[in-house]
Design brief:
Blueprint: E1 2-3, E2 29-30, E3 33-34, E4 38-42, E5 59-60, E6 67-70, E7 74-79, E8 87-89, E9 100-108, E10 118-123, E11 126-131, E12 141-146, E13 152-157, E14 165-173, E15 178-183, E16 186-191, E17 211-214, E18 227-235, H1 241-252, E19 257-258, E20 283-286, E21 289-294, E22 304-305, E23 307-309, E24 318-319, E25 335-340, E26 351-357, E27 369-371, E28 377-379, H2 389-402, H3 406-416, E29 429-430, H4 441-456, H5 461-484, H6 538-544, H7 559-577, H8 580-597, H9 602-609, H10 620-631, H11 634-642, H12 646-650, H13 671-688, H14 691-707, H15 734-737, H16 747-761, H17 767-781, E30 792-793, E31 806-807, E32 813-814, H18 816-824, E33 833-836, E34 841-844, E35 850-854, E36 859-865, E37 872-878, E38 881-889, E39 898-901, E40 904-906, E41 914-922, E42 927-931, E43 936-941, E44 944-952, E45 955-961, E46 969-973, E47 983-985, E48 990-993, E49 996-1000, E50 1007-1009, E51 1012-1016
Parallel strand pairs: 21-26, 29-32, 34-38, 46-51
Antiparallel strand pairs: 1-19, 2-3, 4-18, 5-8, 6-7, 7-18, 8-17, 9-14, 9-18, 10-11, 10-17, 11-12, 12-13, 14-15, 15-16, 20-23, 22-24, 25-26, 27-33, 28-35, 30-31, 33-34, 35-36, 36-37, 37-42, 38-41, 39-40, 39-42, 43-44, 44-45, 44-51, 45-49, 45-50, 47-48, 48-49
Helix pairs in contact: 3-5, 4-5, 4-7, 4-18, 5-8, 7-8, 7-10, 8-11, 10-11, 10-13, 13-14, 13-16, 16-17, 16-18
Length: about 1000
Amino acid sequence: MKMYKLFIAAILSFGSVNTVAWAQGGDQILDGIGETGLIARYVFNGDLKDWSRNNLHGSTVESKLVFEEDPKFGKVLSLSPAAKGLISLPGDAFTGEESLSISGWIYLRSAKSGQYFFDFGKSAKSHFFAAPMGSSNKTEFTTGIVAKTGKKYESNSPILEANKWYYITIVIDSPYKTVSTYVNGGLVSTIKDLDLDLIQLFDTNLTKNNKLYIGKSFVTEDSYLDAKLHDFRLYRIPLNEKQIRKIYHTALDDSYEEEEAELAVGDLVKFPSTTPQLYNQYLTSVADVKVQTVVGSLPRLPRYIKGVYKNGIEGPEVKVIWPAPTDNSSVVKAGEYTISGIVAGTDLKPKAFVTVKDGKASAAPKLKLATFNLDEVSLNSDLHGHHTKFMENRDKFINTLADTNPDSFLYMFRNAFGQQQPKGAGPLGVWDTQDTKLRGHATGHYLTAIAQAYASTGYDKALHDNFAAKMDYMVNTLYELEQMSGQPKEAGGPSVSDPTLVPMGPGKTEYDSDLSTEGMRTDYWNWGKGFISAYPPDQFIMLEKGAKYGGQKTQIWAPYYTLHKILAGLMDIYEVTGNKKALEIAKGMGSWVHARMAKLPTETLISMWNTYIAGEFGGMNEAMARLYRITNEKQYLEVAQLFDNIKVFYGDAKHSDGLAKNVDTFRGLHANQHIPQIIGALEMYQDSNIPDYYRIADNFWYKTTNDYMYSIGGVAGASNPANAECFISQPATIYENGFSAVGQNETCATYNMLKLTSDLFLYEQRGELMDYYERGLYNDILASVAENTPANTYHIQLRPGSIKQFGNSKMDGFTCCNGTALESNTKFQNSIYFKSLDNKALYVNLYVPSTLKWTQKNVIIEQTTSFPNEDHTLLTIKGKGKFDVNVRVPYWATKGFFVKINGKEVKEKAVPGNYLTLSNNWKDGDTIELQMPFQFHLDPVADQQNVASLFYGPILLAAQEVDPLKEWRKVTLDAKDISKSIKGNPEKLEFTIDGVEFKPFYNTYGRHSVYLDVTLE
């Protein structure tokens, strides 16, 4: 049994008298529900602010709100007909949501009918509402929906008693086509067979047309609400009854006990053990394996092993799920031991025989390759003169970026320094608003994006000049601001130049993160020399003192994460243009950070970097190592090492285990908080030559892509823990612990996984690295952008009948993923080709229409193809020289990989998942033709193999759906050749199975099913 008042130690009760705690308590968990499920929360204890991180603050038409003390909840909001009390919520709160839950506490002072708790929609013909005392012609509690189609849905239950607190919850569950009304945690009425998508109720293009009213209907003349209100919440998930009861009883702090374990939100179908598990139903045996390791390091176990199938079936290699130790106690001395694995849906237990030897781990590889500059590679139209998907998405971003106003991205920097804004300047929205503790993060992405756009637009002088001017303006303004920090406001005036001596704000008795117009400090002369940010230095200092993540002024939100984006953008501009001011700004802030962090003990650093979200530092280790490489100033390398996440990297301060010794230390952790740290570790390896840094990166990549990856290449989306931004709680349990109802595949996590992958490839040219890169690029990054605008996804929903939710079409309000999208879509050409450090070898990694200018060889390589709509490509060499051309043989090219040089067939064997080396003394006009016949294949979930995604070559094919679904789409395929069950046009990549259309996920903009319930016959 579980007592709700003890549900998570880090979360404070918010129902006690005069006490209201921050919604997330530093763990992004509110009543056991992850923050990603929460749209907004209004506690109504003195204002209409949204307590979530989404800044959807309410407003009122009245000049003054009335709050009063209540014996149950402390300060609450009081609405009355006399005052015409009315709360209006931002119209973009429900943009593109699949399901909804609206909940709140209400104390009705009148039994008069016609009082609306809320009324949400866009018109009298498109809205939904709750009238707890009945609507104007009803004497029952009425929950109603009026659809644009003319249909009306209503459910009724007894009216509430006046002068009594009630907790009301309305749940719209689109997959189940129901609207359920709960009072005090109990179900009182249900609308069934709801034939309606939520997007029909709201204007997703002009959100200002949406009306979200609390306290009155916006379509009738019914009376204003006469009531007290407390803790009004909006969720983007359909809460279940147990969750609703939990919220209710936690608020009352009544020690309520729940006999049964709580179900996960949107729990997926549970398949019986007898359900056929795809090819595993034909599996008769799996080979055992032998592996070696050294004392202290866990062995790397192969995740796919050769199997034997019956009935003439040629099945794929078998996915084996191995135990995942949380320490390295099994390898602390030399010897031998055996590990047993499992194969989903079978009773087979393949064994790994492990030999543990004394000695050192094998040497880490040296850097072998280098990237080409962005201006050395250009994207081309395809073989038939059509713009590719890469060009389409690039142009959406480039053209919109060109129209942006840099002053919007500088607004909060000027605001922090108390400077006047230029005429017509306005702030960004979402996570860059006045009160938001992450403000400035988008500016960092913007700096990188305009640098990349500048480097990539040699084809258009006007665009090229546009981005040049933007870069200069941004850098000049930031430079002027940074020069003010730690300097007297007036000659001879007071100032604090030492970063370690930053005082508290004027008139304050503690450091705080108050960024409100009234409460924010702007005494930049006290901030220490070199400081630059869109907020004062308090958040950095508060992190050192143990502050947690949250919205109150005693809490913070990832100050070093934001700083990393800014520093990376400045260095990108410096490396593209040579702008010395950009480098000086980065050096100044790097020195500020070094001064503060050099004084911190190791225990404090370990605590900081393992503080959820608050301690998220992005890739500060990468940025500082990079700054060291540019400047050769050792302090930057020193501070880079202070960003080591010792607990994840090494287990503890003694370096007992951790990723360096192949221990999975990141299960259940926030994915994108840690992936950039791993990228930084690899960067540190380049500069420090400490082998453990390489092993940390390589071990992490191997585990992540084999045990935590969804089919499109994304890696976050846990339902356990209850946070869609986290890795699942145990490796290789995506079906059991993944598929969060809020979404999977946080897009910025995939951005960083691709960055890590390409960086690793520079050291080891393993085909699996670029196989993954291709998967994530085509099926996640390309698929994350809206059809006609640069709006893009945060999470990408992969549950049955889902729909992508796009945001930030005008680049005026950024989440983390909106920020990385600026970068992803302005550098598509960056990993198509790599070169060896000695310029004696070229690597062709991706089959994308493009032109490479290999300056050092005085050679141009032109790649002509319509890939992936066609399965061949042509490389034409312009110039001459002796060098190797290494072409990637994709893992999926199991039908062959055919090569011709100047029309003559090359007979060297090509092995899928590897590279084929073509050595020649190339002449001008030489050609290399590559053909790699596509075939259909399935990519199943490790722990539930019959749930799988369908691929054609590298391209994931999504079923095109009409409605949200409550179960996976079922398909039956031929066991010996699944292509026999599929019809369609390969050149258009459009297919059908049993009349259902399938097309590339990157061309899917409506409802989709990426995973299928597959039966083989």
